[in-house]
Amino acid sequence: MKFYFFHLMPYGPLDPDWDKTHEAAWVTLPNSYYDPKEGHKLYNRYLDELVRADELGFDGVCVNEHHQTAYGLMPAPNVLAGALARQTKNAKICVLGRALPILDNPLSIAEEYAMLDNLSGGRLIAGFVRGIGCEYHSSMANPGYSLARFQEAHDLIVEAWTREGPFPFDGDHYRFQYVNLWPRPYQTPHPPVWVPSQGSQETVDWAAHPDRRYTYLITFSPTESVIKNLNAYRDRCSAYGYDCPPDQLGWALPLYVAETDAIAKKEAGAAIESLFNKFLKTPAQYKLPPGYSSMRSYKFVMEVKYKFREEYLSVDKLMENGMFLCGSPETVFERLAELQGKMGFGQLVTMLQFGTLSAELTEKNTRLFAAEVMPRLRKVGVSPTVAAE
Predict the structure, then answer these.
(1) Contact 122, 93 (CB under 8 A)
(2) Nearest of 332, 337, 167 to residue 259 by alpha carbon
(3) What ranges in the chain are assigned the alpha helix state H?
(4) Domain count of the chain?
(5) Nearest to residue 382, comparing CAs of 344, 333, 342, 353?
(6) Does residue 329 contact residue 257 with C-beta atoms inside 8 Å?
(7) Residue 143 contacts residue 292 (beta carbons within 8 Å)
(8) How deeply is 10 buried, as exposed, middle or buried, from its count of CB atoms within 10 A (0-12, 13-18, 19+)?
(9) How many Å from the N-terminal Cα to the C-terminal Cα in the chain?
(10) Region 6-32 average pLDDT
(11) Domain range holding 276?
(12) Coil, strand, or helix at residue 110?
């Protein structure tokens, strides 16, 4: 199993009473709530936390993209990934990921990722996403073209990375007379691609295709939903005629480790509740704009995922449905080993800072996980032959 430290970079100093007058932490929350002096402190603190993960032996450090929200201060993740490429030594630099359909020039992403791959010496993992519904309200992109633009933008980027230029690209949504990427990626034929998802059936079909075989990463979901999604992806790989390896399956979730189960729950409870009940607060029309997905996918996501968010999610409820793991090193190890046996994932993307969790508790959590949980999980799910090598 491989381990990644994923940071959302939330705006922790947000007025705790904001939700009494505003319906969402996304799109329409006035930016008067944001203090640039606090933002300066947070960016530097969060980068330090990512660098520490590299020093502690995590396989990768991860950033992502969101716009107009207190949930995550990363409208330009390439800026942060560039800083990390210089400050880290061994960890992969994962951008999970760039929202392709909301851009008019996907070649800019091809260029950014190629630069990061060169700067890091081939440590980039390139994440591609369609972007959640909120991004379409922020960018005024048409959600009805989301899937088609995503797939076409992806094809353009991969061609730009792998095909000798200059050459023309004439698609339905993007047209370029000259595609001639400078610089080309460091990795051959291109950086590995991950596809974070909330369960779209179209994404499962597309990412599992033999031409791609991309790592499929499930985020923010109850364990029952994760099992269904990863099984659906594995089944789709089988239908395409190949066995899905563990490295092609990923799970992202927040977790917290402390000396005992009781201490862990006490230290992390308020912060994890702030993430799910404050920072993720969004009306349905923002999350699922018309035309974004098929009715089949809407129904699937609503039934297995969003129904849990219609009520207040206490730390106990989050632990019960598996959206948050919390406890002593032994408890967290045993639970993760059990769930890996049910899910088969080979990539674990940990959120060790979440919501309003302080710098001190984030460091404690990271160090305990790295020292007392991560080493014991390294060979979980690995075949005896590989483990003996």
Answers:
(1) no
(2) 332
(3) 36-55, 77-87, 107-120, 133-139, 146-162, 201-208, 223-239, 261-274, 284-287, 295-304, 315-320, 329-343, 359-368, 374-377, 384-388
(4) 1
(5) 344
(6) yes
(7) yes
(8) buried
(9) 15
(10) 95
(11) 2-388
(12) helix
| pLDDT for 201 | 85
Residues 247-288 pLDDT 10s: 999 999 999 999 999 999 999 999 999 999 999 998 888 887
What confidence score (pLDDT) does residue 66 get? 96
CATH of the domain at 60: 3.20.20.30
* Three-class secondary structure of residue 200 per DSSP: coil
Pair of tokens at residue 112:
């950014």
How does DSSP assign 243-298, residue by residue?
PPPGGGEEEEEEEEE-SSHHHHHHHHHHHHHHIIIIIT---HHHHS-TTSS-HHHH
- Paired with 196 in beta bridges are 217
Residues 6+ apart with CB under 8 A from 80: 9, 43, 47, 63, 74
> What is the rounded average pLDDT for all residues in the chain?
93
Nearest to 159 by CA among 183, 129, 189, 121: 189
d(CA 361, CA 357): 7
Please tell me whether residue 218 adopts helix, strand or coil conformation: strand
Closest CA to 70 of 42, 109, 100: 42
Q: Are 51 and 88 in contact (CB under 8 A)?
A: yes
Distance of CA 261 to the CA centre of its chain: 27
Distances (CA, A) of 296 to 133, 178, 293: 16, 38, 8
b/e 77-115 (16+ beta carbons within 10 angstroms → b): bbebbbbbbeebeebbbbbbbbbbbbbeebbebbbbbbb
Other CB atoms within 10 Å distance of the CB of residue 243: 8
